[in-house]
Amino acid sequence: MGEHRIAAVAVSHHRLALDPPFRPSWDTRPRRHFDATVVRVTTDTGLTGFGSGDAMVGFEAYEDLFLGQDPMALERHARVLSHISFHAGRCWPLDLALWDLAGKITGQPCWKLLGGLSDRVRAYASSGTLRDPAALADAAQRFAAEGFGAMKIRFHRGDWREDVRALEVVRARIGDGLELMVDCNQGWRQPWDTEGPWSLKDAARVAKALEPLGVYWMEEPLHRADREGMRALRQMTPIRIAGGEMNRELTEFRDLIQGRCLDVLQPDVALTGGITGLRRVAMMAQEANLVFTPHTWTNGVGVTANAHLAAGLAGSPFLEFPHDPPEWSLERRDFPMAEPLTATDGWIVLSDRPGLGFALDEDRLAATRL
């Protein structure tokens, strides 16, 4: 293989204008643009690995810690990134780029380097916008026809009973044709959003209303730090309790697993821990007989990286596939990539191409660069 050394780490920021704007249920402001940060790590032998995800805030102060290093020293690099995430921002997209590079150095796809369990994972269609009940049922029918096995529906502000009524309309329309997940979005807030999260008894009432509808999981019904509440809620309802998408520290997942607080763990490689850190969480979840299935709501690079971990090591039953056309199309979601990541008959199928297996759209990245 020869000796490879890291010669450069380049970080660029890109902005795609959204017209019409996208109105995600978890944000009180309409989104008029979609930002992506792209990380490129290049070796002295001319290979480049790509990553994307968090904005790499503060990374420039630490870039020299990687230059001249062996790119395959993934555990060493993850320790440095863990320290950076304590002192500065979350810079885990570099871990994704290093895994992409490791695959290119070894000539193997990341899903094989991670254990080769499978080259595919079942996708669930993850909606983002709020629709009236009939439109939501139409979308569910469309997803079922496209082969998706499951769909996630967002709860929103106002009266949760309205959300339950919308879910009843969907279930009546599709029968058992789709598993349905519900995202309560109580785990965290946008900085400008000062509304408090639900209490345990709020969440318990919602869970009771969801039980007759055969909901597969109830996501983030409580604040991310309310571990005792999650543990109690898990005992109170047969519905799976999911969470952890934006938790910053890997130790939080150790505690959530040891405390039996969640049925479904959802950390995202693009936001916390990278592939190197989250393969530990995937294994911890497996040993505790819990479900590991990452959050993926960044862009197609993040979906792809999470899919390699979910398929190659975790054996996740479903993986989030952000897909809510026309407002959230694959063209918007995957604008940094040469080809969008697609689901075939409801499955994300990974290739044998080395690394993460995607190319960047350099022309679009140049046109959208900030």
Structure, explained:
The chain has 370 residues and is of the alpha/beta class. It has helices spanning 74-87, 93-106, 110-113, 133-145, 160-174, 200-210, 227-236, 250-258, 274-287, 300-314, 330-333, 362-368, and strands at residues 6-22, 31-43, 48-53, 120-126, 150-154, 179-183, 215-219, 240-243, 264-265, 291-292, 319-322, 347-349. The longest helix is centred in the middle third of the chain and has 15 residues, at 160-174. The chain is globular and about 60 Å long. The model has no long low-confidence stretch (mean pLDDT 96).
Brief summary of the model shown:
This protein is α/β, with parallel strands linked by helices.
Give structural attributes:
3-stranded antiparallel sheet, globular, alpha/beta
Q: Main beta sheet: strand number and arrangement?
A: 9 strands, mixed
Compute the gyration radius: what is it?
A: 20 Å
Mean pLDDT rating: 96
Question: Are there runs of 5+ residues with pLDDT below 50, and where?
Answer: none
DSSP summary, beta strand count: 12
Write the layout of secondary structure elements.
Elements: E1 6-22, E2 31-43, E3 48-53, H1 74-87, H2 93-106, H3 110-113, E4 120-126, H4 133-145, E5 150-154, H5 160-174, E6 179-183, H6 200-210, E7 215-219, H7 227-236, E8 240-243, H8 250-258, E9 264-265, H9 274-287, E10 291-292, H10 300-314, E11 319-322, H11 330-333, E12 347-349, H12 362-368
Parallel strand pairs: 4-5, 4-11, 5-6, 6-7, 7-8, 8-9, 9-10
Antiparallel strand pairs: 1-2, 2-3, 4-12
Helix pairs in contact: 1-2, 4-5, 8-9, 9-10
